[in-house]
Structures are given as C-alpha cells and as structure tokens.
Fold this sequence. Notes:
CATH architecture of the largest domain in chain A: Orthogonal Bundle
Shape of chain B: flat
Largest sheet of chain A: 4 strands, antiparallel
Radius of gyration of chain B: 26 Å
Shape of chain A: globular
CATH topology of chain B: MetI-like fold
Distance between the termini of chain A: 16 Å
Structural class of chain A: alpha+beta
Number of helices of chain A: 18
Structural class of chain B: mainly alpha
Helix content of chain B: 55-70%
Strand content of chain A: 5-15%
Order of helices and strands of chain B: HHHHHHHHHHHH
Number of strands of chain B: 0
Number of helices of chain B: 12
CATH class of the largest domain in chain A: Mainly Alpha
Oligomer: heterodimer
Distance between the termini of chain B: 44 Å
Radius of gyration of chain A: 29 Å
Largest sheet of chain B: none
Number of domains of chain B: 1
CATH superfamily of chain B: MetI-like
Number of domains of chain A: 3
CATH architecture of chain B: Orthogonal Bundle
Amino acid sequence: MKKYLFIRILKSIFSILVVVSIVIVMVYKLVPTTKMFGNDAGYQRLKGIDKKIYEYNQLERLGYLDYVTTTDMCSEVYGEDGLSACLAGENTQEAYKAFEDRGYTIEVINDVDEKGQPATATIGYRYYNPIELIANFYSKLIVIDNPWAVEDANNPDLERKYYIGQDQNGIPALMCSGCNYKYQIYFDGSFPFIHQNIIELDLGDSYPTRIGVSTVSIIYSGQGSQSPFMQTFPTGVERSSALMQHTCRYKANPDHMDTQLFTDNYASCDARYDAPSMVNTSLIMGFISLVLAYIIALPFGVAMARNKDKLVDKIGIVYINLLIAVPSLAVIFFLKYIGSFFTLPDRFPQLGFGDIRSYIMPIIILALISTPSLMMWARRYMVDQSNADYVKFARAKGLSQKEIYTKHILKNAIIPIVNGIPQSVVSCLSGALITETMFSIPGMGKLLPDSIKQLNINMVLTLTLLFTTLSVIAVICGDILITVVDPRIQLAAKGD
Amino acid sequence: MTDPRFEFVNIDLAASEHIAAPQYSYWKSVFRKFFSSKVAIAMLVIMAFVVIMSIVHPFISGYSNLAMDDINNPSARFLSISLEHPFGTDDVGRDMFAACWAGTRTSLFVAVIATIITNVIGTVVGMFWGFSKKLDVFMIEVYNIVANIPFTLVAMVLMFALGQGVPQLIFALSCTSWVATAYFIRVQVMIIRDREYNMASKCLGTPTFRIITHNIFPYLISVIMTGVSRDIPSFISYEVFLSYIGVGLSEKDISLGRLIENGSAYMTSAPHLFVIPVFISALISVSLYIVGQTLADASDPRTHMI
C-alpha cells in the first residue's frame, strides 16, 4: 500500500510536470508578444529607444529571452578592466561578434531618445529554446528561505541565525534573523493553525495588469479593503493597524514610520483585508456546492432506482437529459433569471462579500450543473445492484423494500459513487470557470479567462499548475477513500 | 406407394437450406425502431429544419459579420421583432435572423468536425488499445494525465496559445477529448473481446485485425452513437462558452457563442438579442441529443427483437 502510494504520487507529479511543461512551451512560443504591451499603460507613454529597451527588459523579466546591453556584452567578454575601453568603441565589434556566435541577435536601434533627438543603441537578445524555458520555470519555482537570504550591503552586522521567540500575542514561534521572513513557523487562530514561511512558490510576476505583484500573492492575498485591528508592535506601541506582523519581510531601508513600530529591519508586512482571497473564495464556494450536489443528487438517484420506470424515474431522466443537452451557459442564464425573482443579485459585486445573498445563486448553479452525471451514475449502480443474489436473499428473508435499499444496496452502490468524488471535484473546477465568469465572482475561475484576455502569461501558467495539481490530488484522495469505504479493495493489486 | 392420392415432389436443395425466419435487414430494423418514437420524429424534424436553415440561409443572405452597413443609422439599431427582421436587429443594425443562422452554421460546423475527429481517432485507438497489452501500458499513462485535467482548462489554455479562429477552436476541442472516447471504447472492447463467439473466431484462425473490424466494431456502433449524441451538444456548449468569455472565435466569425456574448450586454434593454441565440443553441442541442440517443438505441441489434 505504501509502495503503491509512493509510486502513484510520483506518477502524479510526473503528469503535472508534463502538462505544465507542454503549456509552458506552447504559451511562450505561440502567444504573440506584441499584443501584450497594448495593455501596459506605462509602455504606451514611452517612445523611441526607451520603448524598445523597456520591451526587451520586460520580455526578459517574463522569461522569454536573455537580453544584454552593450555594457553587459563588454564586461562579459573583456572583464572589468577592458570595460571602459570597450564602451569607448575599442573592440566593441568583437564583443558583439562573440555574442552573435553564442546565438544572440545583435540589433542596432536607430530611433529617438526621450528628448526627441536621434539616437542609436545596440543591444543583443536570444530567445530561449523550449528546454531552457522549462528548466528556467522549474528552477526558480520553489524558493527556500534561509538565514543567508538577505543580502544588504548597508547592514553587514546582520545576525544569521534561527531562534525561538514570541510573537505579538505571546505565542512561541520559530523566528529567523537574516532570512527573508522574520517568522518562519508560527501559530495563530486561523485554519490550519500552524503556518510556515520557509518554502515559497515563485511563479513570476503578473504582467501587464497589476505589474510587479507576484501571481501567487494575487491569488492568496485578501481582497476588498484593509481591515485594521488593535495590536502591539515590537517597539511597544499599541495601535490599530491592518499590518499582519507574521508576514513581515526584510526591508532594506525602513522609513520613519517603520522605526516607530519595528525594532529591526523586518518592516515590510502584508495587510489584512476584510474579504477572502481569490483561492479561498473559490474553495469555499466549490466545497459547499459539491456537498450540496451530493445532497441533491444521491437521494434523487436512489429514488429513481427504487421507482424504476415510474413517474419519478421518468422526470429524473428528462432532467438529466435536459441538463446534459442544453449548453451550460444557457442553463446558467436561465437559473440567474429565476434567481432575480427572489431578489437575488445576478452579479456577485452588486452586494459583495459581506452579503450572504451574493453566494446563494452561484452555489446553487454550481451544484445543479454537476448533479446530472451524479444522478445518472447513482441510479445506474443502484439498478445494477438490485438484481444481485444478496438482494433476492434479503427479500426472501422478508425484509422490507426500504430496509433492502438503505441497508443493503446503498452500502454496495456507494463504493463506485465514492470513487467518483474526485471526478466531481474536477468537474466542479470546470464549472467554477464558467460560473465565476458569469457572476463576476473574484475567484480563481474568473481569473483565468481574465488573464487570458489580458495575455497575462505568468498568471495563466500559475493557474494551470494550480488547477492541475488540485485535480490530481482529488483523484488520489478518491482512490484512498474507496479503500476506507470498502476494505476488500486493495489498491496495490489494481494494476490491470 | 401406389396410392394415387400421393404424388412425388422434386427434391429442392435450395428450399432445405432456407431458414424459416422473417426477413431481417439491419438498417430496415434500425429505421423501423427509430420511427416508432414520436418524440424522435419531432426532434428529427426540428433538427433537419435548423440544419437546413443554417446551411441554406447564409448563402441567400450572404451574411458577413464585418459588414455593418447601418452602423451610422440609429433608426436601424435594436429594432424589435418585425416582419422585415424576424429576429430584430442588433446594436449596429445587423439583421439578427441572418446572423443567427450564420452563427448556427459556424457552431454546428465546429461541433460536428470536432465530434468526427474525436470519435474516429478515439474509436480506432480504443479498439487497438483494448487488444494490445503493449499499447495499454503507454496509453493508460496518457489517459491518467489527460483525465486529471479539467477539459475547460485545456480548451482555454489551447485557445490562448493558438489564438482565435475556427481551425484553432476545432483543434482545441478535439485535442484531448479523443483520449476519453478511446478509454471508453477500450473498456467496451475488453468486455466483449473474450466472449465465446470471439474465442471461437480466434480458434478458427481469424486474424486480430479482422476480429476487430468484423466481430467487435458492429457491436460498438450503438455505443459510439451514444457518444456522438453526447459529444455534439457538449462541443456546442463549449464553443458557446469559449466564445462568450472571449477566447473562442474572432470578430470576423459569427457563432452562437458570440451572439450570446453580444446579446448579454443588452439583456434588459433588448432581450431578444440574447434570448433567441440561447434558445436556438438549446434547441439544436436538445434535438441532436434526443435524435442521437434514439438512433443509438435503434442501432443496437438486441432491441430489434419483436
């Protein structure tokens, strides 16, 4: 069992890597880069050489290419000593030549500078090949914080050590000096109660919207407006602030405001917001709707099987066929229309996070669009089981129809249904993509179409990785779950 | 044998070979079974109407999504339903009746081509997959990778990478969906490949290829038909969704999804712009689905017994 799980997890990681690698290559090689800059307001203001150089800088930051200036090329070829001579014009052509031999394209830009005067600049760039693209993506993916992470020339005496300290609430925490984060492991009242800042995912920065913010923090940080609360800062100052001290990072130049609150350089903290993050919004809605879908679909499916070929069964079959056949977009619009009669908003932001009515329709719709397949399979398994020998025996013993169905058939039919849970999670993720877009819910599902429209490649890659990982985990959990429900099933011997 | 009441008859060898059973023709039985369902006939009429209209009408109207002749004529915009414009006009004065049929044509075209690709590749691969142990080892891993990812995500990311357009959309829709079809066919093949009649066929020396094409394929027709009747509506649904969120088709192509996307902005002020395309997409999906399901039932020889 352990060995099987180990191999299974390895295979799953492999499949995630394959999918993400394919997506990386496709996105980097096929998406036109020119349209991307159209959404960048800063780029639009630039002109001439600056615009061109900004473009290459940005492409390098996004991981498309390696961009080198004349200075870079000269210092690479001739070192620090020959740099000034090279820049002055001596041997410059040899430096270009050396880089051209390495596969770089040398481009001479003849355009105007910011003052409108004609100017020339020579730059070199080289687009990465698919293998380099994939390697670059994974090599920077996981960042491990360590006491030597901070490199600050102004603070040479910075101590490099881990220690056990107390946070502002007096709870012990593993802290670090010299790391990027002050609190490495800490406890607080929010789920899952124990938190860490040691391992971080780096999936690049968002571009061209919310430039410079990392994609991971867009998904994980709270939304809405800042919500201050009373807290004590390391200097002893007690005041109402939205800063969360557990998230404080090293700040090279703390300003006057920071020194009032913090005794050390760890002063760059995230703020607390009053609305849940994108990932939490999606998870909360997804989870509730999944539970709701099972609560609706299972009893209905069982009732259909018990009354096979009767009215309930026929109504159920019509319902299943209708929901499968009609485009889900049309179903959602129809349900939204019905919801408007109960004064439920047809867009999430109308009432916002605070109002429970914002959540009702999206959750109901998300649940309803995953019911038909659940009902169909529940009915199928129940009908298949109802002809089994043990059912005939139970009937011969004189058990009532109700007892047979709830105590005998359901227990056997539930096994494949449990195994179907991961598939429901996957379809719930798909459903969330549609529902969140239709209701403008600020969650991960809406973020994907939005970032596709804005050509935000890092965001698309982040979400692809996230969705793929979530669904792969769901499938593994579903298989583990059936061994819990039915001890007869041995996963290890499953290889067919 | 001198009794005059008896007389000799000639031995008819052909007659002795004759099996005393009613004439059976597969396709005749399929059609008889199909046309015995009134709902299916009604849906077939609706389907035929929609399909013919979507093929013929764009030729008559010559609809082009880029032709906006009345864009500067406010009196031609947002016209309600009338005799001249049976479905009204949209925000730039285009006739919705022509737009709807041209859009239906694109949506149907995308869905049908994607379904054909999915099912042809899926069936061929699936049948060999069910027989070959070597292929199984490889394909099961491919299936595990593909089945774990939400299809909507695959389609969206592919459209993002490939750009908008009809061929891109068809590729995005059929790129991974054939794996699921192949897996389904594989399971069906595994169930029936070891049945007695196939064992007998094998013992008599029939090559595997012939068993696949002559013994197993006919058995699978109804299974494939069920898949097809589910695929077409689901591909229409995906086309509508992808175009609605703006990654499906570009401005020069009109489709039901794009019509719904355009119309959703005027849901309260000019609801016909939105309701009619939604209704048409629901109509073709439901009619295609029911016709397909009935045809699938009818094409199963086991239902032909009277």
